[in-house]
Amino acid sequence: MLKIKDLTVRYKKKIGIKNLNLEVHKGEVIGFIGSDGVGKSSALNAIAGVLKFEGKISYKGMSYTSPKEALEVKKQIGYMPQGIGLVLYDTLTVSEHLDFFADIRDITIDAEFLEYKQNLLKMSGLERFLQRKAGELSGGMMQKLSLICTILHRPSLLILDEPTTGVDPLSRIEFWEILKHNSQNYGAISIVSTAYMNEASKMDRVVLFDQSTAIAIGTTVELLKEIEPFVYEKTVQKFPNSLTVGEATYSLEKLDIPHQTPILESLFFINSLKHNALLPALKISQKNLAKNTNKITIKANKITKRFGKFIANESVDMELHRGEIVGLLGANGAGKTTFIKMILGLLPIDSGELSLLNKKITSAKDRQELKSKIGYVSQHFALYDDMTVRENMLFFALMHKISRKKAKELIGEYADELGFREYLDDMPRSLPLGINQRFSLAVALLHDPIILCLDEPTSGVDAIARRQFWDLLQELKIKRDISILITTHYMSEAEFCDRVVLLKDGKKIADKKIAEFYEEFPNAHDFEEIFLEYYR
Amino acid sequence: MRLRVIKAYFVKELIDLYRSKLIFMPYLVPLLIVVLFGYGIKMQVTGVRVLILDNDHSKISRTLISKFEHSKYFNTTVENITEEEGLEKIKKASKDMIVIIPSSFEKNILKGTQSEIGVFVDASFPSRSSTMTNYVQGVIYNLAQDYHIKSSQMIQLNNRNLFNQSLRDEEMIVPGLIGLVLLVSPAILTALLISKEKEKGTIFNFYSSSVTGAEFLIAKLSAIFTLTSLNIFILFFVVIFLFDLPFRGNFFLYWISSELYILVALGFGLLVSIVVSSQIVAIVVTLMLTILPGFLYSGMLMPISSMNNEAYIIAHLYPVMYYNHIIYDTFLVGQGFDSSLNILYLSLLAGYALLFFFVGLFFLKKEI
């Protein structure tokens, strides 16, 4: 049905995707899996006929080699580009969107269409919000509306670029229900890219992407079976050509250790091993920081934040202890970022009390002395794009009143420990996200903080870098006894935290150790299921 | 070409403009420009410090002096000094102008022979100086009428400045402002509406559907065209009633040329939006491309015939000049369709509109 032959996308300076070959059959759901910048979007844009490419794509006998030739095929294609609510007009209501898309797609409006439309609205739960403007919908609802608009003309080829990234798990489930329904009832081909490994189980076949190439194509069962011989139980022993991340050790050579069942992420780890594209071993040096401070580093008592009528945080209590990693989890707009910003003093607190390192915070002056004890890595890595990595680090060090000589020593030290020495004279924007993430962490650690706040530091970062980043955080906790407060939208990462605080609509709905969560829901397979129990 | 697609975009654009309050922009900005500039740029000169050197001391020369004294434009003094001393005063900027009445002034006039009045004007501001010369011309004309003589026989002016016929600024500036705002506001709105889709990502709805480039452009442009066309009438009334301008020409010519001109302006915005992809850059670039040339090369501040080579060519390449010519004609002259130059300029405007649209269409790609 859909045949992709030698698809290559070239940009001015780099290659988007190299020689992709793929055949997809009617009704199949294909998953494009990989981290940011590995070529998924390039491939999808090319298939959707909105990007110049080399090679040949043919669908239902119509073939095209350029966007221009794809005009006829586009009638059958539904394409949803990457980005939440990207194709929606903020000022238009839900029902106006449906009218607009029906018109530009030239859909015949008959009883059958109206029924189809009604059904979509019902499944997505948007029925009640027909008169609401798109700009006022939540991220999850926006994505569901985008999907409905994209499949309104019943495309037989559906292309969705990371439709669920950043969307809360509940909306994600509904999203997949609509999608499954569409492919089962209308036999549409769906190509869906995702950064969530666990969504791979929803696909008929997956294509794994790494460094602009498709590294493997097949069903998840097939692919996992292939790598079984390389996956071993976790070991502390060092072997050449091996890698230990998370709960397993991977080696291409036979080891004398019992095997372990691979997980999807293992596919990427093995691929890195095969291509010798391993990250340098990272470590954190031991430091004794302010031994005499209190056990409790952050104590928030009924903190509330309002934006006009909207309550972003309502009476949230929380404690953070020395040597503890606490994960702040919640759907989009649950108030995670707002909470972190209040703790850092980036947003004023409307009511409630906050103590940092046993000192009650009442004014900006109280914070001034504490600034040197807190480190922060923001959602988008607040680095200056027009300064090199070294200049950025020097700038932040000097801001913290570290002497120039000492700063240079520190920069060298962290560059070696966190493995970014070779990138010191590059501009941040030209670096892979994983490098940016580690260097942002180094910036936040320059002044030896006791509390470290991280706002979604792992989003968009590839599987190995993500795993290694968590290993780093664990090491930081142990070797420096610091407290870490971290937000993430990867539910699977909750497992790496000591304790998880769940937020919903600005309120705290749970605050427990990971083990306690599993005791409460013994049937849960992973944390996402626990999360959903709380959110339902 | 599917009408339904065009209608969908048309309606969407209007809703969007209305809800984002941007719908007021095409009316407020032009009004603001016309009113502020119309009142603000005054080339009218009053209180010219004129020094009269009377070498005749006759009845007619005294009548002439009293005419200067009774004019609100002049601040007259009569002194008995030499020409050189008078010129010194201009150099020191204590006088703006010297008028020298020759010794046999009255005798020559009564004999009907020519006489020469020396006029020295401070020309540090060319437009101001030519206005001042005009004033003197007016006074002398007035005097000549009293004595039933043709003024051209009577005087000669010692003057190298431009000849500016108008005594009222509004008539010079305001019609040109219509040419400016009808260019600026549709161009900005067009650049904004297309770059907005690019910036937000909604342009993908066009990229990924079978909507053709022509459909997309016509849909987008027709919404803005409809909105800004209303300005043709609003501005007409503002100019007539607020600035008391005469309207001597053909209203249909005014209307049709303005519509064509708006199409040219849409083309400007379209070309900008094809190159840039963010709204803020679109605004800045469009402003630069429209306001500055709209002022400088429109003939509003400086007659195009007096421009030097490069400026003369630029002015002719830029469509503003053609529209302004028609506008000045409809308001002040009134030759209308009888003037073949008006017809030529009208067809040039249509040509520009078509050219911009097709260039825009050619470069508008349905891909990233």
Defining key terms:
heterodimer; A: 536 residues; alpha/beta; Rossmann fold; 3 domains; six-stranded mixed sheet; 15 helices; 25% strand; B: 368 residues; mainly alpha; abc type-2 transporter like fold; 2 domains; four-stranded mixed sheet; elongated
Quick structural gist:
Chain A is α/β, with parallel strands linked by helices.
Structural write-up:
The complex is a heterodimer of chains A (536) and B (368). The mean pLDDT of chain A is 85. In chain A, α3 packs antiparallel against α4 and α6 packs across α7. In chain A, β14 and β15 form a beta hairpin. Chain A is globular. Chain A is built from 15 helices and 23 strands. Chain A has 3 domains: 217 residues, 3-Layer(aba) Sandwich (Rossmann fold); 55 residues, no CATH class; 192 residues, 3-Layer(aba) Sandwich (Rossmann fold), CATH 3.40.50. Chain A is of the alpha/beta class. Chain B starts with a helix and ends in a 5-residue tail after the last helix. Chain B is built from 15 helices and 4 strands. With 368 residues, chain B is mostly helical. Chain B folds into 2 domains: 234 residues, no CATH class; 107 residues, abc type-2 transporter like fold, CATH 3.40.1710.10. Chain B has a 4-stranded mixed sheet with strand order 2-1-3-4, sandwiched between helices. In chain B, 40% of the residues are buried. In chain B, β1, α3 and β2 form a beta-alpha-beta unit. In chain B, α14 packs antiparallel against α15. Classes of the chains: A alpha/beta (536), B mainly alpha (368). Chains A and B meet through β6 and α2 of A and α1 and α9 of B.
